[in-house]
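Standup notes, structure subgroup. Blocker cleared on the manganese (II) ion input:
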Amino acid sequence: MPKIIVLPGDGIGPEVTEQALACLALLSEARGLQLTFQEQDFGGVAIDRHGAPLPPATLAACKSADAILLGAIGGPKWDTAPERPEQGLLALRAELGLFANLRPAHIVPGLEHLSPLRPDIVTGADALVVRELIGGLYFGEKVEGTEAASDLCAYTRSEVERIAHVAFQAARNRRSKLTSVDKANVLATSRLWRRTVIEIARQYPDVALDHLYVDAAAMALITHPTRFDVIVTENLFGDILSDALSVIGGSIGLLASASTGAPGTPALFEPIHGSAPDIAGQDRANPAGTIASAAMLLDHLGHPAAAAELRTAIDAVLLAGIRTGDLGGTATCREFGAAVRERLLQAIDQREQAAA
Ligand code: NAD
Ligand code: IPM
Ligand code: MN
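Run returned:
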């Protein structure tokens, strides 16, 4: 029985997680997936209850899981805490060896008008950011003084190699185009990055590789998003570019992610957005990104049909005009989640009738 650890976290985290969890529970029941769920404290809530963002019991539970579903962590309440919620997230990623963070973004045909970008720019946009997740500036040595501070950016060849393989393989399963994003005109780590990606490319002659500097990439993502298929980049650049990419679909609330490590180890699924303190506790958050993260979780557990059913339901609800405030709609977080489950039930009924 696959064990899912659920980390609702802070702010809108519990609100969006509740909706995604209910979708997973429904699919598990309907398809006999036998998923089991166990909730753990993580982030600011864990600081309040246990004095640390990643308590030992939470880490142990995550290590023994098949998959982890996370809402979001952080918020103003803990911004000056000795150990911030964000450090718990970084520690969890590092402890589980989650070096590859996959962040897909596409425009649902028929929903081009939800994008702040012109329809002729966004129509057909479908990109995947492959973000290196446990190296670079986030994890280099830090010196924090009152007069001076520094964060070391370091990468090893093998760290670049393993993320490059993930990206080339992802490109192979999509449109066979990979853009490596770096700042090789300035940074030594970026020159190592580019050399290594070019070397690995020899093993993937079927994938077309190009390179962009991160500043130019940020512009191209907005002005010409359809030029991208898979984008591979280092930790900080991937963080920034994936939020930029979320503009395409009209809201960061739509974007899902999967963080994976070595084969056979637990993977983590979470929306790319944060705890949105400005709308927390108001039932206004868009749960679509978390529900889509649950779909990625189903794929990871080897249930592609259930994952596809869930994605189809999300798109159908959006196309039916049921949308939260971030997309200009009036639906609450709960109403959106309930509408997705209604579509799931309809699809399950139709499937069962067709089989009878
Ligand atoms: P944020 O993503 O929380 O919010 C940015 C903006 O997007 C806000 O206006 C917010 O209301 C909106 N938004 C985000 N998610 C939404 C959703 N699902 N539905 C509707 N609107 C949504 O980013 P922030 O404000 O910079 O950060 C807030 C906190 O979250 C910080 O403590 C930050 O460190 C943390 N954070 C956590 C994660 C994570 O848990 N993985 C990711 C990013 C930020
Ligand atoms: C994300 C977040 C995190 C990151 C923070 C909260 C540590 O922004 O998951 O995108 O920078 O990786
Ligand atoms: Mn981010």
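Discussed briefly. The chain has a mean pLDDT of 98.
Next: hand off to the docking folks.
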